[in-house]
Amino acid sequence: MSRDTLLVSEFFGPTFQGEGTSLGRRALFIRLMRCNLTCRDCDTAYTWDATRYDLASKTQELAVEDLLAWALSRAEALVVITGGEPLIQQTRLLPLVRGLVEAGRRVEVETNGTIAPRFGLESLVSQFTVSPKLTRFGAGMPLATRIKPAVLQAFTATGRAVFKFVVSGPDELDEIAALAQAHELAPVYVMPAGTTADQVLAGAAALADPALRRGFHLTTRLHVLLWGDCPGR
Ligand code: SF4
C-alpha cells in the first residue's frame, strides 16, 4: 500500500449520523478496513474477519485525494470516519482529515479505544467517539486486549472524546460504571445492541431508566430504526 492511499470498505452519504452526540445530523461516512479486535458481536466483521469474508473483494484501495474530493463535492459539514478500527491507518488518515478540516468540515472518528491518536490527529479531529468493548460483546478477548488504560487516558487528554458503550442489557451497566470510574471516562453514552428496529427499541426502553439513575446518556441507532441492517445507510 502506498503512503497516499487508504484501505476502504465503503464510503457513502449523505445520510444521518445514527448514533451518539451527532445523532440526526446529515453526514458522510468513510468506513476503513481492518480491526485489531475480534468482537463476537461485531456488525462490521466484513472489514476484518478473513475466516468469514473474502477481504480482498471487500477492500478498495483509494487515493486520499480522491476521497477528499468526493467528500468536498458534497455539502455535508460532518464527515464520520469509522471501521473496523480506523486508527490502524492513522498515518495515512492524517492528510485526509487535515484536508477536510482545512475546508471547514467537522470530522468525527469512531474508534474502539485501543490505539491512541498521534501525529497531530488528536488536535485535528473534532470528536473521538470511543467505544471500549465490554466483557460480553468482546467475548473471548482478555481485558488487557479490550481495555488499555493509557490509551483511554490519551483520548481523555484530547478533550475531544466521548465514550459510547454498546450494551446488550441493563446488567452491563455495573461494568460500565466501574470502567468509567477507574479510567475517569466522561461523558458516557450507552447504546442498545441490535440490528433490527425491534431489538434497538426494546433495548433502549430497557436501558432508559437505569441509565438515567446512573447519570449516563442514552443513544439509539437511528439508521437501524429507519433502514434495518443495511450497509451504506
Ligand atoms: S472493535 Fe469494532 S470493528 Fe473491531 S471487532 Fe469490535 S465491534 Fe468490530
UniProtKB/TrEMBL annotation:
Q: Which keywords belong to this entry?
A: 4Fe-4S, Iron, Iron-sulfur, Lyase, Magnesium, Metal-binding, Queuosine biosynthesis, S-adenosyl-L-methionine
What InterPro entries is this protein classified in?
A: 7-CO-7-deazaguanine_synth-like, Aldolase_TIM, rSAM, rSAM_sf
> Catalysed reaction per UniProt?
6-carboxy-5,6,7,8-tetrahydropterin + H(+) = 7-carboxy-7-carbaguanine + NH4(+)
Per UniProt, where does [4Fe-4S] cluster bind? C35, C39, C42
Q: Protein name, please? A: 7-carboxy-7-deazaguanine synthase
> Which spans of this chain does the record mark as coiled coil?
none
Q: Which PROSITE patterns match?
A: RADICAL_SAM
Q: Give the top-rank taxon of the lineage listed in the UniProt record for this protein.
A: Bacteria
For the Radical SAM core domain, which residue ranges apply? 22-229
Cofactor binding, note field: Binds 1 S-adenosyl-L-methionine per subunit. Binds 1 [4Fe-4S] cluster. The cluster is coordinated with 3 cysteines and an exchangeable S-adenosyl-L-methionine.
Q: In which pathway does it act?
A: Purine metabolism; 7-cyano-7-deazaguanine biosynthesis
Per the entry, what this protein does is: Catalyzes the complex heterocyclic radical-mediated conversion of 6-carboxy-5,6,7,8-tetrahydropterin (CPH4) to 7-carboxy-7-deazaguanine (CDG), a step common to the biosynthetic pathways of all 7-deazapurine-containing compounds.
| Amino acids binding Mg(2+) | T44
Q: Please tell me where S-adenosyl-L-methionine binds in this chain.
A: G84, S131, P132, K133
Species source reads Lentzea atacamensis
Q: What is its EC number?
A: 4.3.99.3
Complex and partners: Homodimer.
User: What is the similarity comment for this entry?
Assistant: Belongs to the radical SAM superfamily. 7-carboxy-7-deazaguanine synthase family.
Q: Which residues bind substrate?
A: F16, Q17, G18, R31, T82
Against CDD domains, the record matches this protein to: Radical_SAM
Cofactor(s) for this UniProt protein: S-adenosyl-L-methionine; [4Fe-4S] cluster; Mg(2+)
Which is a Pfam family this sequence falls into? Answer: Fer4_12
